[in-house]
Specification:
The complex is a heterodimer of chains A (336) and B (256). Chain A is α/β, with parallel strands linked by helices and 336 residues long. Chain A has two domains: 213 residues, Rossmann fold, CATH 3.40.50.300; 64 residues, Alpha-Beta Plaits (2-Layer Sandwich), CATH 3.30.70. Chain A is built from eleven helices and 14 strands. A six-stranded mixed beta sheet of chain A has the order 6-7-8-3-9-10, sandwiched between helices. In chain A, strands 2-1-4-5 form a four-stranded antiparallel beta sheet, with helices on one face. Chain A has a four-stranded antiparallel beta sheet with strand order 12-13-11-14, with no helix packed on it. In chain A, helix 3 packs across helix 5 and helix 4 runs antiparallel to helix 5. Chain B has one domain. In chain B, helix 1 packs parallel to helix 8, helix 5 runs antiparallel to helix 8 and helix 8 packs antiparallel against helix 13. Classes of the chains: A alpha/beta (336), B mainly alpha (256). Chains A and B meet through helix 2 and helix 3 of A and helix 7 of B.
Protein backbone atom coordinates (compact mmCIF):
# COMPACT_ATOMS: atom_id res chain seq x y z
CA UNK A 1 0.00 0.00 0.00
CA UNK A 2 1.23 3.48 -0.76
CA UNK A 3 -0.02 5.25 2.28
CA UNK A 4 -0.45 8.99 2.09
CA UNK A 5 1.30 11.39 4.36
CA UNK A 6 -0.98 14.12 5.73
CA UNK A 7 0.46 16.57 3.27
CA UNK A 8 -0.62 14.54 0.27
CA UNK A 9 -3.29 16.21 -1.75
CA UNK A 10 -4.97 12.97 -2.69
CA UNK A 11 -5.76 10.51 0.01
CA UNK A 12 -5.97 6.95 -1.22
CA UNK A 13 -9.48 5.69 -1.59
CA UNK A 14 -10.64 2.58 0.21
CA UNK A 15 -8.75 -0.26 -1.34
CA UNK A 16 -10.20 -3.64 -2.24
CA UNK A 17 -9.37 -6.22 0.38
CA UNK A 18 -7.90 -8.45 -2.30
CA UNK A 19 -5.40 -5.77 -3.20
CA UNK A 20 -2.80 -6.93 -0.71
CA UNK A 21 0.27 -4.83 -0.15
CA UNK A 22 2.41 -4.29 2.93
CA UNK A 23 1.01 -1.85 5.42
CA UNK A 24 2.78 1.43 5.81
CA UNK A 25 1.95 3.79 8.63
CA UNK A 26 1.92 7.53 7.99
CA UNK A 27 5.25 9.31 8.18
CA UNK A 28 5.83 11.44 11.24
CA UNK A 29 6.05 15.04 10.15
CA UNK A 30 5.50 17.14 13.26
CA UNK A 31 8.39 19.51 13.66
CA UNK A 32 7.98 20.74 17.24
CA UNK A 33 7.76 17.33 18.83
CA UNK A 34 10.64 15.54 20.51
CA UNK A 35 9.27 12.03 20.14
CA UNK A 36 10.58 11.32 23.63
CA UNK A 37 9.07 10.02 26.82
CA UNK A 38 10.77 10.98 30.04
CA UNK A 39 9.48 10.04 33.46
CA UNK A 40 11.07 10.56 36.83
CA UNK A 41 10.00 8.98 40.08
CA UNK A 42 6.50 8.08 38.93
CA UNK A 43 4.48 6.64 41.79
CA UNK A 44 0.90 5.53 41.91
CA UNK A 45 -1.03 3.70 44.59
CA UNK A 46 -4.42 1.99 44.28
CA UNK A 47 -5.78 1.36 47.76
CA UNK A 48 -3.17 -0.63 49.61
CA UNK A 49 -1.36 -1.65 46.44
CA UNK A 50 1.58 0.41 45.25
CA UNK A 51 1.21 -0.03 41.50
CA UNK A 52 4.24 2.10 40.57
CA UNK A 53 7.12 2.54 42.98
CA UNK A 54 9.03 5.45 41.49
CA UNK A 55 9.66 4.65 37.84
CA UNK A 56 12.49 6.46 36.06
CA UNK A 57 12.46 5.89 32.33
CA UNK A 58 13.53 7.58 29.13
CA UNK A 59 12.27 6.37 25.77
CA UNK A 60 13.04 7.61 22.28
CA UNK A 61 13.28 9.47 20.09
CA UNK A 62 12.48 6.70 17.66
CA UNK A 63 12.73 2.97 18.07
CA UNK A 64 10.50 0.35 19.63
CA UNK A 65 10.67 -0.11 23.36
CA UNK A 66 8.99 -3.15 24.82
CA UNK A 67 7.55 -2.89 28.30
CA UNK A 68 7.48 -6.38 29.69
CA UNK A 69 6.16 -7.81 32.88
CA UNK A 70 3.72 -10.25 34.34
CA UNK A 71 0.13 -9.25 35.12
CA UNK A 72 0.04 -6.61 37.82
CA UNK A 73 3.62 -5.51 37.25
CA UNK A 74 2.56 -1.92 36.49
CA UNK A 75 2.86 -1.83 32.68
CA UNK A 76 -0.64 -0.57 32.02
CA UNK A 77 -0.58 1.84 34.96
CA UNK A 78 2.65 3.35 33.64
CA UNK A 79 1.15 3.71 30.17
CA UNK A 80 -1.98 5.31 31.60
CA UNK A 81 0.14 7.75 33.59
CA UNK A 82 2.08 8.67 30.46
CA UNK A 83 -1.13 9.33 28.52
CA UNK A 84 -2.72 11.37 31.31
CA UNK A 85 -5.49 8.87 31.96
CA UNK A 86 -4.27 8.35 35.51
CA UNK A 87 -2.69 11.06 37.62
CA UNK A 88 0.44 9.86 39.38
CA UNK A 89 0.69 10.40 43.13
CA UNK A 90 4.26 11.61 42.73
CA UNK A 91 6.83 12.13 40.02
CA UNK A 92 6.93 13.85 36.70
CA UNK A 93 6.25 12.71 33.16
CA UNK A 94 7.06 14.50 29.94
CA UNK A 95 5.76 13.17 26.66
CA UNK A 96 6.81 14.55 23.30
CA UNK A 97 8.03 17.72 24.96
CA UNK A 98 4.87 18.31 27.00
CA UNK A 99 4.53 17.82 30.73
CA UNK A 100 1.64 15.47 31.45
CA UNK A 101 -0.86 17.38 33.56
CA UNK A 102 -4.60 17.69 34.01
CA UNK A 103 -6.51 15.06 32.07
CA UNK A 104 -3.70 14.81 29.51
CA UNK A 105 -5.80 15.67 26.45
CA UNK A 106 -3.02 17.88 25.03
CA UNK A 107 -0.53 15.04 25.44
CA UNK A 108 -2.91 12.52 23.88
CA UNK A 109 -3.24 14.81 20.86
CA UNK A 110 0.46 14.20 20.23
CA UNK A 111 0.40 10.45 20.52
CA UNK A 112 -1.88 7.53 19.93
CA UNK A 113 -2.79 5.15 22.70
CA UNK A 114 -4.42 1.77 22.38
CA UNK A 115 -5.68 0.40 25.71
CA UNK A 116 -4.97 -3.15 26.72
CA UNK A 117 -8.51 -3.88 27.86
CA UNK A 118 -10.52 -4.36 24.73
CA UNK A 119 -14.14 -3.39 25.17
CA UNK A 120 -15.71 -1.75 22.17
CA UNK A 121 -19.21 -0.47 21.47
CA UNK A 122 -20.89 -3.54 20.04
CA UNK A 123 -23.79 -1.60 18.56
CA UNK A 124 -21.50 0.39 16.25
CA UNK A 125 -20.34 -0.77 12.84
CA UNK A 126 -16.64 -1.24 12.26
CA UNK A 127 -16.26 1.87 10.10
CA UNK A 128 -18.33 3.94 12.51
CA UNK A 129 -16.15 2.74 15.35
CA UNK A 130 -13.02 3.78 13.51
CA UNK A 131 -14.44 7.28 13.10
CA UNK A 132 -15.34 7.29 16.76
CA UNK A 133 -11.86 6.17 17.80
CA UNK A 134 -10.27 8.82 15.60
CA UNK A 135 -12.18 11.76 16.97
CA UNK A 136 -9.87 14.74 17.33
CA UNK A 137 -7.49 13.47 14.63
CA UNK A 138 -6.77 14.84 11.18
CA UNK A 139 -9.26 13.90 8.46
CA UNK A 140 -6.70 11.89 6.49
CA UNK A 141 -6.25 9.58 9.49
CA UNK A 142 -9.78 8.24 8.87
CA UNK A 143 -8.88 7.20 5.34
CA UNK A 144 -5.65 5.59 6.44
CA UNK A 145 -7.41 3.71 9.21
CA UNK A 146 -10.10 2.46 6.82
CA UNK A 147 -7.45 1.38 4.38
CA UNK A 148 -5.50 -0.48 7.04
CA UNK A 149 -8.65 -2.12 8.39
CA UNK A 150 -9.54 -3.33 4.92
CA UNK A 151 -6.10 -4.82 4.51
CA UNK A 152 -6.85 -6.78 7.63
CA UNK A 153 -10.05 -7.95 5.88
CA UNK A 154 -12.16 -6.54 8.68
CA UNK A 155 -15.88 -6.53 7.84
CA UNK A 156 -16.31 -2.80 8.39
CA UNK A 157 -20.01 -2.73 7.59
CA UNK A 158 -20.76 -5.31 10.29
CA UNK A 159 -21.54 -4.40 13.86
CA UNK A 160 -18.58 -4.74 16.18
CA UNK A 161 -20.48 -7.10 18.49
CA UNK A 162 -19.99 -9.75 15.82
CA UNK A 163 -16.22 -9.29 15.78
CA UNK A 164 -13.85 -11.78 17.33
CA UNK A 165 -11.34 -10.62 19.92
CA UNK A 166 -8.59 -10.56 17.32
CA UNK A 167 -10.71 -8.50 14.90
CA UNK A 168 -11.42 -5.95 17.61
CA UNK A 169 -7.72 -5.76 18.34
CA UNK A 170 -6.99 -5.16 14.66
CA UNK A 171 -9.60 -2.41 14.52
CA UNK A 172 -7.93 -0.68 17.48
CA UNK A 173 -4.55 -1.21 15.88
CA UNK A 174 -5.71 0.45 12.65
CA UNK A 175 -7.02 3.40 14.67
CA UNK A 176 -3.78 3.65 16.65
CA UNK A 177 -1.53 3.55 13.60
CA UNK A 178 -3.46 5.98 11.38
CA UNK A 179 -2.86 9.39 13.01
CA UNK A 180 0.24 11.33 12.05
CA UNK A 181 2.04 11.46 15.39
CA UNK A 182 5.58 10.78 16.56
CA UNK A 183 4.65 8.61 19.50
CA UNK A 184 2.48 5.56 19.92
CA UNK A 185 1.79 3.83 23.20
CA UNK A 186 0.27 0.43 22.57
CA UNK A 187 -0.85 -1.80 25.41
CA UNK A 188 -0.95 -5.53 24.58
CA UNK A 189 -1.44 -4.67 20.92
CA UNK A 190 -0.87 -8.21 19.65
CA UNK A 191 -2.98 -9.90 22.31
CA UNK A 192 -5.52 -12.24 20.74
CA UNK A 193 -4.04 -12.12 17.22
CA UNK A 194 -3.24 -15.25 15.26
CA UNK A 195 0.44 -15.72 14.29
CA UNK A 196 0.06 -14.38 10.74
CA UNK A 197 -1.79 -11.26 11.85
CA UNK A 198 0.72 -10.82 14.65
CA UNK A 199 3.47 -10.87 12.05
CA UNK A 200 1.66 -8.24 9.99
CA UNK A 201 1.24 -6.04 13.03
CA UNK A 202 4.87 -6.37 14.08
CA UNK A 203 6.01 -5.59 10.52
CA UNK A 204 3.86 -2.46 10.50
CA UNK A 205 5.31 -1.42 13.85
CA UNK A 206 8.84 -1.93 12.55
CA UNK A 207 8.10 0.16 9.48
CA UNK A 208 6.58 2.89 11.63
CA UNK A 209 9.63 2.94 13.91
CA UNK A 210 11.94 3.06 10.91
CA UNK A 211 10.16 6.25 9.78
CA UNK A 212 11.12 7.90 13.07
CA UNK A 213 8.13 7.18 15.30
CA UNK A 214 8.73 6.27 18.92
CA UNK A 215 6.80 3.19 19.97
CA UNK A 216 6.24 1.93 23.47
CA UNK A 217 4.63 -1.51 23.52
CA UNK A 218 3.63 -3.63 26.43
CA UNK A 219 3.40 -7.36 26.42
CA UNK A 220 3.63 -10.36 28.65
CA UNK A 221 4.82 -12.55 25.78
CA UNK A 222 8.58 -12.51 25.47
CA UNK A 223 8.73 -14.13 22.06
CA UNK A 224 6.84 -11.45 20.18
CA UNK A 225 8.46 -8.31 21.54
CA UNK A 226 12.05 -9.44 21.23
CA UNK A 227 11.38 -9.83 17.52
CA UNK A 228 10.16 -6.26 17.13
CA UNK A 229 11.83 -4.27 19.90
CA UNK A 230 15.07 -2.35 19.98
CA UNK A 231 14.99 -2.25 23.73
CA UNK A 232 13.25 -4.23 26.45
CA UNK A 233 12.27 -2.79 29.81
CA UNK A 234 11.23 -5.28 32.46
CA UNK A 235 8.84 -4.32 35.23
CA UNK A 236 7.88 -6.26 38.30
CA UNK A 237 5.76 -5.20 41.25
CA UNK A 238 5.76 -1.59 40.08
CA UNK A 239 9.54 -1.43 39.79
CA UNK A 240 11.83 -1.33 36.78
CA UNK A 241 14.04 -4.36 37.26
CA UNK A 242 15.95 -4.49 33.98
CA UNK A 243 16.51 -2.45 30.85
CA UNK A 244 18.25 -4.44 28.10
CA UNK A 245 18.59 -4.83 24.40
CA UNK A 246 17.05 -7.94 22.79
CA UNK A 247 20.60 -9.01 21.86
CA UNK A 248 21.73 -9.05 25.47
CA UNK A 249 18.57 -10.88 26.53
CA UNK A 250 19.19 -13.39 23.76
CA UNK A 251 22.78 -13.78 24.89
CA UNK A 252 21.62 -14.44 28.45
CA UNK A 253 18.97 -16.91 27.37
CA UNK A 254 21.41 -18.71 25.09
CA UNK A 255 23.62 -19.45 28.08
CA UNK A 256 20.82 -21.13 29.98
CA UNK A 257 19.95 -24.79 29.53
CA UNK A 258 17.07 -26.46 31.33
CA UNK A 259 17.18 -30.19 31.98
CA UNK A 260 14.08 -31.96 33.22
CA UNK A 261 14.53 -35.44 34.79
CA UNK A 262 12.06 -38.13 35.70
CA UNK A 263 13.20 -37.84 39.32
CA UNK A 264 14.84 -34.97 41.15
CA UNK A 265 18.65 -35.23 41.24
CA UNK A 266 20.40 -35.47 44.60
CA UNK A 267 23.42 -33.39 45.67
CA UNK A 268 25.93 -35.90 44.39
CA UNK A 269 24.24 -36.25 41.00
CA UNK A 270 24.04 -32.46 40.67
CA UNK A 271 27.74 -32.19 41.43
CA UNK A 272 28.44 -34.55 38.55
CA UNK A 273 26.76 -32.14 36.12
CA UNK A 274 29.26 -29.48 37.15
CA UNK A 275 32.03 -29.35 34.58
CA UNK A 276 34.35 -26.83 32.88
CA UNK A 277 31.56 -25.64 30.57
CA UNK A 278 29.22 -24.95 33.48
CA UNK A 279 29.10 -21.66 35.38
CA UNK A 280 26.26 -22.33 37.80
CA UNK A 281 23.60 -24.93 38.51
CA UNK A 282 20.24 -24.29 40.15
CA UNK A 283 17.89 -27.21 40.83
CA UNK A 284 14.15 -26.76 41.23
CA UNK A 285 12.46 -30.11 41.81
CA UNK A 286 12.89 -32.33 38.77
CA UNK A 287 14.08 -29.36 36.71
CA UNK A 288 17.67 -28.20 36.72
CA UNK A 289 18.70 -24.81 35.32
CA UNK A 290 22.29 -24.76 34.13
CA UNK A 291 24.18 -21.57 33.20
CA UNK A 292 26.88 -22.45 30.71
CA UNK A 293 30.00 -20.34 30.12
CA UNK A 294 29.60 -20.04 26.34
CA UNK A 295 26.45 -19.52 24.34
CA UNK A 296 27.15 -22.74 22.43
CA UNK A 297 25.64 -25.61 24.45
CA UNK A 298 27.27 -28.47 22.56
CA UNK A 299 30.20 -28.89 24.93
CA UNK A 300 27.90 -29.06 27.92
CA UNK A 301 25.41 -31.39 26.22
CA UNK A 302 28.27 -33.66 25.15
CA UNK A 303 29.40 -33.82 28.80
CA UNK A 304 25.84 -34.69 29.86
CA UNK A 305 25.76 -37.46 27.26
CA UNK A 306 28.93 -38.93 28.83
CA UNK A 307 27.16 -39.37 32.19
CA UNK A 308 25.69 -42.74 31.19
CA UNK A 309 25.22 -43.89 34.80
CA UNK A 310 23.07 -40.83 35.52
CA UNK A 311 19.42 -40.91 34.47
CA UNK A 312 18.98 -39.28 31.10
CA UNK A 313 17.03 -36.01 30.96
CA UNK A 314 13.45 -36.32 29.76
CA UNK A 315 13.49 -32.85 28.32
CA UNK A 316 16.18 -30.37 27.29
CA UNK A 317 15.23 -26.73 26.74
CA UNK A 318 17.60 -24.24 25.23
CA UNK A 319 17.46 -20.84 23.58
CA UNK A 320 13.89 -19.90 24.34
CA UNK A 321 12.38 -18.70 27.52
CA UNK A 322 8.91 -17.67 28.54
CA UNK A 323 8.63 -14.37 30.32
CA UNK A 324 7.91 -16.20 33.57
CA UNK A 325 11.11 -18.28 33.15
CA UNK A 326 13.01 -15.12 32.30
CA UNK A 327 11.86 -13.50 35.52
CA UNK A 328 12.57 -16.48 37.73
CA UNK A 329 15.75 -17.76 36.09
CA UNK A 330 17.47 -14.57 34.98
CA UNK A 331 16.16 -11.80 37.21
CA UNK A 332 15.62 -14.00 40.24
CA UNK A 333 12.06 -12.79 40.79
CA UNK A 334 9.90 -15.23 42.71
CA UNK A 335 6.16 -15.73 42.51
CA UNK A 336 5.73 -14.72 38.85
CA UNK B 1 -24.37 14.46 7.83
CA UNK B 2 -22.90 11.80 10.12
CA UNK B 3 -24.56 11.81 13.53
CA UNK B 4 -22.44 10.58 16.42
CA UNK B 5 -23.46 7.54 18.40
CA UNK B 6 -24.46 9.71 21.35
CA UNK B 7 -26.40 12.15 19.20
CA UNK B 8 -28.36 9.28 17.62
CA UNK B 9 -29.22 7.86 21.01
CA UNK B 10 -30.35 11.22 22.36
CA UNK B 11 -32.41 11.91 19.25
CA UNK B 12 -34.13 8.53 19.49
CA UNK B 13 -34.78 8.90 23.20
CA UNK B 14 -36.03 12.47 22.81
CA UNK B 15 -38.34 11.51 19.95
CA UNK B 16 -39.83 8.65 21.96
CA UNK B 17 -40.41 10.93 24.94
CA UNK B 18 -42.01 13.54 22.68
CA UNK B 19 -44.39 11.01 21.13
CA UNK B 20 -45.51 9.59 24.47
CA UNK B 21 -45.89 13.00 26.13
CA UNK B 22 -47.82 14.34 23.14
CA UNK B 23 -50.12 11.33 23.07
CA UNK B 24 -50.89 11.70 26.78
CA UNK B 25 -51.43 15.43 26.37
CA UNK B 26 -53.75 15.08 23.39
CA UNK B 27 -55.87 12.46 25.13
CA UNK B 28 -56.02 14.57 28.30
CA UNK B 29 -57.09 17.70 26.44
CA UNK B 30 -59.73 15.87 24.42
CA UNK B 31 -61.05 14.51 27.70
CA UNK B 32 -61.35 18.00 29.25
CA UNK B 33 -65.10 18.60 28.60
CA UNK B 34 -65.96 15.30 30.21
CA UNK B 35 -63.64 16.09 33.13
CA UNK B 36 -65.19 19.53 33.61
CA UNK B 37 -68.68 18.02 33.68
CA UNK B 38 -67.71 15.48 36.30
CA UNK B 39 -65.48 17.56 38.56
CA UNK B 40 -67.99 17.34 41.40
CA UNK B 41 -68.03 13.54 41.29
CA UNK B 42 -64.25 13.38 41.05
CA UNK B 43 -63.87 15.67 44.08
CA UNK B 44 -66.12 13.42 46.13
CA UNK B 45 -64.07 10.39 45.03
CA UNK B 46 -60.81 12.15 45.91
CA UNK B 47 -62.03 13.31 49.33
CA UNK B 48 -60.15 10.57 51.29
CA UNK B 49 -56.90 11.88 49.77
CA UNK B 50 -56.70 15.50 50.89
CA UNK B 51 -53.81 16.46 48.60
CA UNK B 52 -55.60 15.04 45.56
CA UNK B 53 -58.78 16.78 46.56
CA UNK B 54 -56.82 20.02 46.87
CA UNK B 55 -55.54 19.64 43.30
CA UNK B 56 -59.08 19.05 42.05
CA UNK B 57 -60.28 22.13 43.94
CA UNK B 58 -57.62 24.20 42.19
CA UNK B 59 -58.71 22.88 38.79
CA UNK B 60 -62.32 23.60 39.69
CA UNK B 61 -61.43 27.18 40.64
CA UNK B 62 -58.96 28.04 37.85
CA UNK B 63 -60.40 25.94 35.04
CA UNK B 64 -58.64 24.68 31.95
CA UNK B 65 -55.17 26.25 32.61
CA UNK B 66 -54.91 24.37 35.93
CA UNK B 67 -56.19 21.20 34.26
CA UNK B 68 -53.59 21.49 31.48
CA UNK B 69 -50.65 22.11 33.80
CA UNK B 70 -51.85 19.28 36.05
CA UNK B 71 -52.11 16.84 33.15
CA UNK B 72 -49.04 17.88 31.22
CA UNK B 73 -46.53 19.06 33.79
CA UNK B 74 -47.58 17.64 37.13
CA UNK B 75 -48.61 14.24 35.76
CA UNK B 76 -46.91 13.68 32.40
CA UNK B 77 -43.60 15.47 32.75
CA UNK B 78 -43.09 14.69 36.42
CA UNK B 79 -43.50 10.96 35.84
CA UNK B 80 -42.23 10.27 32.32
CA UNK B 81 -39.82 13.20 32.27
CA UNK B 82 -38.34 12.26 35.62
CA UNK B 83 -37.96 8.63 34.57
CA UNK B 84 -36.36 9.73 31.30
CA UNK B 85 -33.97 12.05 33.12
CA UNK B 86 -32.86 9.30 35.48
CA UNK B 87 -32.60 6.64 32.76
CA UNK B 88 -30.52 8.87 30.51
CA UNK B 89 -28.20 10.19 33.19
CA UNK B 90 -27.55 6.97 35.06
CA UNK B 91 -25.76 5.40 32.09
CA UNK B 92 -23.95 8.48 30.86
CA UNK B 93 -20.71 7.82 32.72
CA UNK B 94 -21.30 4.85 35.01
CA UNK B 95 -22.50 2.88 31.97
CA UNK B 96 -19.07 3.29 30.40
CA UNK B 97 -17.44 1.94 33.54
CA UNK B 98 -19.80 -1.01 33.66
CA UNK B 99 -19.31 -1.89 29.99
CA UNK B 100 -15.55 -1.49 30.36
CA UNK B 101 -15.43 1.20 27.67
CA UNK B 102 -14.44 4.02 30.00
CA UNK B 103 -10.74 3.91 29.11
CA UNK B 104 -11.51 3.87 25.40
CA UNK B 105 -13.96 6.76 25.81
CA UNK B 106 -11.42 8.84 27.68
CA UNK B 107 -8.35 7.87 25.68
CA UNK B 108 -9.08 10.07 22.69
CA UNK B 109 -7.52 13.55 22.53
CA UNK B 110 -10.62 15.24 23.90
CA UNK B 111 -10.78 16.80 27.36
CA UNK B 112 -12.93 15.10 29.96
CA UNK B 113 -14.71 18.39 30.61
CA UNK B 114 -15.77 18.46 26.97
CA UNK B 115 -16.85 14.81 26.94
CA UNK B 116 -18.90 15.34 30.08
CA UNK B 117 -20.42 18.59 28.83
CA UNK B 118 -21.45 16.98 25.56
CA UNK B 119 -23.21 14.16 27.38
CA UNK B 120 -24.72 16.60 29.85
CA UNK B 121 -26.16 18.85 27.19
CA UNK B 122 -27.19 15.98 24.92
CA UNK B 123 -29.14 14.23 27.66
CA UNK B 124 -30.59 17.48 28.94
CA UNK B 125 -31.81 18.31 25.45
CA UNK B 126 -33.32 14.82 25.07
CA UNK B 127 -35.39 15.47 28.20
CA UNK B 128 -36.16 19.17 27.90
CA UNK B 129 -36.78 19.64 24.17
CA UNK B 130 -39.74 17.19 24.16
CA UNK B 131 -41.19 18.99 27.19
CA UNK B 132 -40.87 22.35 25.44
CA UNK B 133 -42.15 21.11 22.09
CA UNK B 134 -45.16 19.29 23.50
CA UNK B 135 -45.98 22.38 25.56
CA UNK B 136 -46.01 24.48 22.42
CA UNK B 137 -48.66 22.21 20.88
CA UNK B 138 -51.07 22.90 23.77
CA UNK B 139 -52.74 26.03 22.27
CA UNK B 140 -53.44 24.15 19.06
CA UNK B 141 -54.81 21.14 20.93
CA UNK B 142 -57.00 23.38 23.11
CA UNK B 143 -58.80 24.69 20.03
CA UNK B 144 -60.28 21.19 19.74
CA UNK B 145 -62.20 21.84 22.96
CA UNK B 146 -62.80 25.55 22.32
CA UNK B 147 -60.33 26.73 24.94
CA UNK B 148 -57.22 28.94 24.73
CA UNK B 149 -53.94 29.48 26.54
CA UNK B 150 -51.10 31.86 25.72
CA UNK B 151 -47.79 30.60 24.33
CA UNK B 152 -45.73 32.83 26.60
CA UNK B 153 -47.28 31.58 29.86
CA UNK B 154 -47.00 27.99 28.73
CA UNK B 155 -43.38 28.48 27.72
CA UNK B 156 -42.61 29.87 31.17
CA UNK B 157 -44.23 26.81 32.75
CA UNK B 158 -42.20 24.55 30.46
CA UNK B 159 -38.97 26.34 31.38
CA UNK B 160 -39.79 25.90 35.07
CA UNK B 161 -40.53 22.22 34.49
CA UNK B 162 -37.27 21.83 32.56
CA UNK B 163 -35.32 23.40 35.42
CA UNK B 164 -36.83 20.80 37.76
CA UNK B 165 -36.15 17.87 35.43
CA UNK B 166 -32.71 19.31 34.71
CA UNK B 167 -31.89 19.33 38.42
CA UNK B 168 -32.93 15.69 38.68
CA UNK B 169 -30.93 14.85 35.55
CA UNK B 170 -27.86 16.75 36.77
CA UNK B 171 -27.90 15.08 40.18
CA UNK B 172 -28.20 11.64 38.60
CA UNK B 173 -25.37 12.49 36.22
CA UNK B 174 -23.23 13.61 39.15
CA UNK B 175 -23.75 10.21 40.81
CA UNK B 176 -23.09 8.53 37.46
CA UNK B 177 -19.76 10.39 37.19
CA UNK B 178 -18.81 9.08 40.61
CA UNK B 179 -20.12 5.51 40.36
CA UNK B 180 -19.77 2.40 38.28
CA UNK B 181 -23.17 0.77 38.71
CA UNK B 182 -25.79 2.55 36.63
CA UNK B 183 -28.64 0.29 37.73
CA UNK B 184 -27.99 1.00 41.37
CA UNK B 185 -27.84 4.74 40.68
CA UNK B 186 -31.07 4.55 38.66
CA UNK B 187 -32.91 2.61 41.34
CA UNK B 188 -31.79 4.97 44.08
CA UNK B 189 -32.89 8.03 42.13
CA UNK B 190 -36.22 6.53 41.03
CA UNK B 191 -37.00 5.34 44.55
CA UNK B 192 -36.07 8.79 45.84
CA UNK B 193 -38.55 10.28 43.34
CA UNK B 194 -41.27 7.88 44.40
CA UNK B 195 -40.52 8.65 48.05
CA UNK B 196 -40.70 12.37 47.36
CA UNK B 197 -44.03 11.92 45.58
CA UNK B 198 -45.37 9.86 48.48
CA UNK B 199 -44.30 12.68 50.78
CA UNK B 200 -46.15 15.15 48.57
CA UNK B 201 -49.39 13.23 48.99
CA UNK B 202 -49.24 13.45 52.80
CA UNK B 203 -50.88 16.73 53.74
CA UNK B 204 -48.78 17.33 56.87
CA UNK B 205 -45.50 16.57 55.10
CA UNK B 206 -46.20 17.89 51.64
CA UNK B 207 -44.07 21.00 52.11
CA UNK B 208 -40.98 18.80 52.52
CA UNK B 209 -41.46 17.28 49.07
CA UNK B 210 -39.50 18.45 46.03
CA UNK B 211 -42.65 17.96 43.95
CA UNK B 212 -44.06 20.97 45.74
CA UNK B 213 -41.87 22.96 43.35
CA UNK B 214 -43.75 21.65 40.32
CA UNK B 215 -47.33 21.19 41.44
CA UNK B 216 -50.45 22.91 40.14
CA UNK B 217 -50.07 25.71 42.66
CA UNK B 218 -46.52 26.46 41.49
CA UNK B 219 -47.59 26.57 37.84
CA UNK B 220 -50.71 28.54 38.66
CA UNK B 221 -48.47 31.17 40.28
CA UNK B 222 -46.38 31.37 37.11
CA UNK B 223 -49.50 31.69 34.97
CA UNK B 224 -50.97 34.45 37.11
CA UNK B 225 -47.69 36.41 37.35
CA UNK B 226 -46.67 35.71 33.76
CA UNK B 227 -43.13 35.30 35.01
CA UNK B 228 -40.96 32.71 36.72
CA UNK B 229 -40.64 32.73 40.48
CA UNK B 230 -37.03 33.94 40.83
CA UNK B 231 -36.43 32.10 44.10
CA UNK B 232 -37.70 28.74 42.90
CA UNK B 233 -36.26 29.01 39.40
CA UNK B 234 -32.99 30.35 40.77
CA UNK B 235 -32.69 27.51 43.29
CA UNK B 236 -33.35 24.90 40.62
CA UNK B 237 -30.85 26.54 38.29
CA UNK B 238 -28.27 26.57 41.10
CA UNK B 239 -28.77 22.83 41.65
CA UNK B 240 -28.31 22.26 37.90
CA UNK B 241 -25.07 24.24 37.78
CA UNK B 242 -23.65 22.82 41.03
CA UNK B 243 -24.38 19.22 40.00
CA UNK B 244 -22.89 19.81 36.55
CA UNK B 245 -19.69 21.28 37.99
CA UNK B 246 -19.52 18.47 40.54
CA UNK B 247 -19.85 15.96 37.73
CA UNK B 248 -17.03 17.59 35.76
CA UNK B 249 -14.73 17.48 38.78
CA UNK B 250 -15.71 13.85 39.51
CA UNK B 251 -14.94 12.76 35.95
CA UNK B 252 -11.68 14.69 35.83
CA UNK B 253 -10.46 12.91 38.95
CA UNK B 254 -11.73 9.52 37.93
CA UNK B 255 -9.48 6.55 37.21
CA UNK B 256 -10.73 4.80 34.07
Amino acid sequence: MMCASPTDATVPQRARSSDRQPMTPPSATSTDSTGRIVCRGLKRRFGDKQALKGIDLEVGPGGITGLLGPNGSGKSTLMRCLTGLIRPDAGHAEVDGLTVRGDGADVRARLTYSPGELNLYGEMRGDEHLYWLLRGREASAHDRALEMAERFDLPLTRKVRGYSHGMKRQLCFAAAMAPDVRLRILDEITDGLDPSRRGQVLDALRKDADSGTTLLLSSHHLGEVDRACDRMVFLNGGELIADESPASVLERTSRLVHLTYAEALNEEQLARLQGPAVERIQPSGRRVSVWIRESDPREFLAAVAQLTDLQSPRRIEYGSLSLAQMYTDIYGVRGV
Amino acid sequence: MRLSRDARNYLLFGTMLFVVLEALLAVAIIWWPSFAENTGVLKRLAAPLPMLAEQLNLIDMIGVPAYVVAQHFFKGCNTLGAAAAVLLAMNAVAGEAQRGTMELWLSRPVTRRRLFTERYLGGLAAVCVPVLLTTLTIPALLTLVDETMGYWDLTLCAVHQCLFLGALYSLTLLFSAMGSQPLKIGFVMLFACIGEFALYMVKTLTHYSAFRLVDIEAFAAILSASSLDPVRAGSLLAVNVAAYLGGVVALERRVP
